[in-house]
Amino acid sequence: MTSSLRSLSGGGGGFTWPWQYYFPPFFTVQVNSDTRAKQLEAWCRLVLDYHRAHKSYVLDISEAQSSQLFSNQDINRRLPPEGIDLVLKTLESRGNVEWQNSEKSRCLVMWRSPREWGELIYKWAQASGHGNSVCTLYELHSGEDTTEEEFCGIELWVLQRSIQALAREGKAELIPGDSADGSDAGVKFFS
């Protein structure tokens, strides 16, 4: 089945499982270091692509093993907890996972780094004539001008970190707001 791809059933929004997802050894941590490295690379890509397709940013470890992501019912295989842990440690080392608590029971999954999101947002700002002007985070998140952009609907914490990354590069300035969630904060983009 190396050349076939299968779509996620039941509301997956066009997500396509990679061929490895239907290959039983994919769900067993490989002993050979070269094979394990390739396996981990495929798992990392799968986790990021899955969360991207679902616009999901949080992974609950207690639910992970039974989730469709780590358990393929079609071939009756599931990645064991130590395999999930290895994948998440690899993603953490790459900056794609950040733990929400010291128990490491929930993590934030970032299929793009805040810097990468910031670059997308900055390109949009420049192309749409928002250079040297101010937008609210709400406008970036939910505004009419951004409905076709990949960052539309992005989690507010990711958006804030993205603007902070732009600020560190001198491309934007985050202007604090008054609301508890920060959605009324502003951002000034520099040309």
From TrEMBL:
| Alphabetical UniProt keywords | Cytoplasm, Protein transport, Transport
Pfam families documented for this protein? ESCRT-II
* GO terms (BP aspect): macroautophagy; protein transport to vacuole involved in ubiquitin-dependent protein catabolic process via the multivesicular body sorting pathway
Q: Where in the cell is it found?
A: Cytoplasm
Identify the GO cellular component terms for this protein: ESCRT II complex
Tree of life domain? Eukaryota
The record's section on SUPFAM superfamilies has: Winged helix' DNA-binding domain (SSF46785)
Q: Which GO terms describe its molecular function?
A: protein homodimerization activity; structural molecule activity
**What does the sequence similarity comment in the record state about its family?**
Belongs to the VPS25 family.
What is this protein called in UniProt?
Vacuolar protein-sorting-associated protein 25
